[in-house]
Write a structure and sequence with these properties.
glycosyltransferase; Glycosyl transferase, group 2 family protein; Spore Coat Polysaccharide Biosynthesis Protein SpsA, Chain A; alpha/beta; Glycosyltransferase_2; 10 helices; elongated
Length: 308
Amino acid sequence: MQLSVVSTLYKSKPFLDTFIDEIQKAIHDIKIAEFELLFVNDGSPDDSLAYLIERKKEIPQIKILDLSRNFGHHYAMQAGLSHAKGDLIFLIDNDLETPPSILIDFYKIINEDNSIDVVYGFQEVRKGGFLEKQFGSIFWNVINKLSDTKIPHNILTERLMTKQYVDKLLELNDANLFLGGMFYWVGFNQKGVPVKKGVRKGASTYTLKRKLQLMLHAVTSFSGKPLEWLFYFGLTITFSSILFLIYLIIQKIIHQEEVQLGWTSIVAVNVLILGIISTFLGIIGIYLYKIFNQVQGRPNSIIKKIYE
């Protein structure tokens, strides 16, 4: 098998007809005869699965992994990568924001230089409005500040990878997936290519809530620095409190009755401390849950049926 194209399904039906036509044309243009189109149905609520089962009758290269429920984008991608058989594996979203023809450019680069293991796309200028651009900038800046692995800004899902690289990526066996970081943690020779991303037709399935959840998940799955910061912040609060108590004692000794240690100030300090402790426990709790999730040993996804 020369090439595997891996794509996930979630409310994808409006895009599939065009996507299949364009990806087949790109594969024909790079003169690859042996390929598979591997779709992972991530609990899509529309009729994407039924559509692909019907198209498979005329395109035998279509292969479908039907997951038992919606596990999430990254987990669905992992399932697809683990079943890809090609010497080269092309990961792409099928919403047509990135044109499937980008495979031609990626293939040319990796074919001309055998030392390259991955060709990935990134946006030089992030698409979207002001808020989307600002959120994206904050996201990547925060991730890179917290992580020891430097991740290029505005990376895309789309990437062409060697089988060796994908096999090593899958060996990580993380239960708490953040593929955006894992792609670069494993190393290998990777080359970025600027890609102009289009505008998706219809609403994105990545809502603001999901983006915030992804940011929290990425930070806590790929960095322990928040725990280090909690430790140092706790030391700072403790040291500051000791100094403040010494100051109050000295003031009380010197000025005696003039210094009033009021009830209001005591309540305010207690509320502040309670808020800090609650925040600390919340962050620690997130990490403990991730440890619990990892040691359970559950599969990251369950495949209900494979259509080959």
